[in-house]
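so the lab meeting is tmrw and i was supposed to have these ready like two days ago... anyway. pasting both below. for each one the top line is the aa sequence and the line under it is the structure tokens. i havent really looked at them closely yet so no promises
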Amino acid sequence: MVNSDHAEAGDYVAITVTDTSLGMPPDVLQKVFDPFYTTKPLGEGSGLGLSMIYGFIQQSRGHVVIDSKEGRGTTIQLFLPRHQGPVEPTATIDEAFAPAGAGEIVLVIEDGAAVRLLVMQVLEELGYRGVETADGRQAVPIREPSMHIDLLISDVGLPGLNGRQLAEIAARAGRNFRSCS
């Protein structure tokens, strides 16, 4: 069992996720919050998922408990301090200041289908034209000088070529666009 910190006294909201997979051996369990630690093969995971969650929970003055037994699965509990007092209204974006595209072409390289679909929908709603692929090796447009691209949005941990490698290829091909990964 891993407990991220000793909790301060108070009321917490708990989010619990349990799976019945193989579970984690003790040596893996001790490293799950380490940035870039992954048990997946190269190119299949960045090792940032639990590290980012841990950071968010810490910034929120919460804590995490992970219980994992080999052969029995894993339970992760996220404890966030319960908000006391009135809820402040959510800030809204003035339509006059909302980002809006004018048909600029955005190349989206993301192996997660749901994330890729969401990014493409948002880009379209904002007035951009998206070109998408799930694999860095299929990102032919960045090598093709005749294909105009204004922005590259890429996952860092991609199968084939990762996001950094794609940015380097784009730079060598003379691409002069912003890169966001």
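ok protien two:
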Amino acid sequence: NGEAIPGANVFRKGTTSGTVTNLDGLYNIEINDGDILVFSFIGYAIQEISISVQTIIDIQLLAEITEIDEIIVVGYGKMRKSEVTGAIASIDVDEIQKMPVSSAAQAIQGRAAGVQVVQNSGAPGDGVSIKIRGTGTINNSEPLYVVDGIIVEDINNVNPSDIASTEILKDAASAAVYGSRAANGVVLITTKEGKSGKIQVNFNTYYAFKEYWKTIDVMGPAEYDIFKNVGSGFIDKARLRLDENRSDDHPDYKDAVKDWVDLISQKGAIQKYNLSLTGGSEKITYYLSADYFSDKGMVIKSDYNRYNIISNITFKLRDNLVLKTNLFYSNSDQNVVPGTSFQDALIWSPLSTLRNTDGFLTDNPYTRITRVQNNITTETGRMSLNLEWDITPHFKYTTLG
């Protein structure tokens, strides 16, 4: 009807880059030629627009009135989406598979209304924080995470390629089955299961580079000396007699580090490899997956490596009795550098050297990174047995252990 829609999601398809509209329905986003913009808002049909040379794109969203009969996970059971009365968001799994993200938590970003996903930092392997409809409790605003029926600490080590469905329970009615632990909402993740038939082998990979789009210009040794001289009495107590035409190649600066940012920087890279097998018979089906993810940071000595293995096997004991086994193992190794490394390098004096006149290392951003080891190794393992007994067509008994 021509009215503005505040809070509508606008993002680049296949990425986590996006924004939301303001109170007037306006937005601002940086894009490239050939990108596809996706516009979405709860209750309205999703629209996709291909970008060529446009600078202003106005969109009118249409109300979505189609009937939906999708089966979604709700608490300990399943319901048709058309029968759900609580506030539940379901994430499009096909979109998750196409996104170059490292974890299930990142895949949620920008995909559900009322769900805020914030990256804790830009460090490789650092997780994200999720808030559902703002801060619900004091001290901890994280929702409850449930993966294959098991409550877990976080979902940063869940491989997006293994996800079959993701539901977010946002209100008290839909999350009540979990009690007070669900005060901040619930994120439900179900991993893939096997399908009867011939074995299917899937392999996917991607590789990406990371580098600074633009760096801040810093002073060289000669320029910094002149700067100190002009500000004598304020910046430095001594006033020097300098030749203002001297360059950074002057013998006085032969050991000086002219650009600390450049010294601690490197070209980053992200790579991911995933191999999965699925198949089975009428009595046994299986899904096996192995995944490797690596993130090399843009600051030297910063990186993150993770290995994931998952095995989901289903045994059909009788026509109405099914046993499911789930095995999960994850090993991650994270090298952490000081959080202020880039900031320190940016403001460090270009007159400083790596070593003093005695040959010993001085205190500087490079030394702080290379001489201090901060390695975090995390191992996570889960095993569960799930017995499902269809007592009647309308009554199912499930036990999880």
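from a quick look at the 2nd one: The chain has a mean pLDDT of 83. The chain has three domains: 1-66, 69-191, 194-218+259-401. will dig more after coffe
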